[in-house]
Amino acid sequence: MRKFWLVFAVVVCIMTGMAISYLTVPKENGQLESFDAIIVIGCPTADDGTLSPMQKARVLEGVKEFSAGKAKHLIFSGGASNNHSIESQVMAQAAAEMGVPNEAVFLDQEANNTLGNIFFSHLIMTGKGWNSAEVISSQNHLPRLGVILALYNFSWQTHAAPWPPNINPLIKFLYYGREVAATTVVRWFGFRSNDLVPF
C-alpha cells in the first residue's frame, strides 16, 4: 500500500508540473493594438483536400482580425504535412472567397510542424521588413506556440480561434492532452539540435 501511495504522489506531482508548465506560458511579449502581419497557423486539410473544420475556424478568425484592421497582411502557414494538399494554399483560397485581396496574402508552403510554421513565417516577415505579428491558432495550441515564439526577437501576440461547432468533447480533450504533453517536453527539455529554431 505504501508503494501505491508513493507512485500516486509521484504521478500527481508530475501532472501538476505539466499543468503549470502548460498554463504559465506567456501569450505575448508586448501589448500591441496592431501588427505588421497576422500569421494563421495551418493544420491538416480534410482527406479530400478541402478545408477542414479546424482550418475553417482559424481562417475565419484570421479574416476577422484582418477585417478589423489588426494588420494589413495575412500569412498562411503550412505545407502538405498529412496529405498531398498544401494547407496554406487551401486556407488562402478560402480567405480569397471571403474577400481578402490577393496582394494582402503571403504563403509559407514549407512548414510541416509548429516549429516550421514560425520559422518559415519569420523568413517571410524578415524579407518584408516586418517586426510584429499576431499569431492565430486553436486555443489548445497557443501555449506551445508561445514557447516557440519566445525564441524570436520580433513582437508577437497569440490569439485563439474558436473551436469548430459541434466538436466531440473527447476529441477536444485529446487535443488538449497532446498539447499539454508537447508543451511540457519543450519547456522541460528544450529543443533538439536539428529542430527549426533560430539558433
From TrEMBL:
GO terms for cellular component: plasma membrane. Keywords: Plasmid. It holds the Pfam family DUF218. GO terms for biological process: Gram-negative-bacterium-type cell wall biogenesis; peptidoglycan metabolic process. It comes from the Bacteria. The keyword Kinase does not apply. Residues 36-172 form the DUF218 domain. InterPro entries: Cell_Envelope_Assoc, DUF218, Rossmann-like_a/b/a_fold. This is DUF218 domain-containing protein.
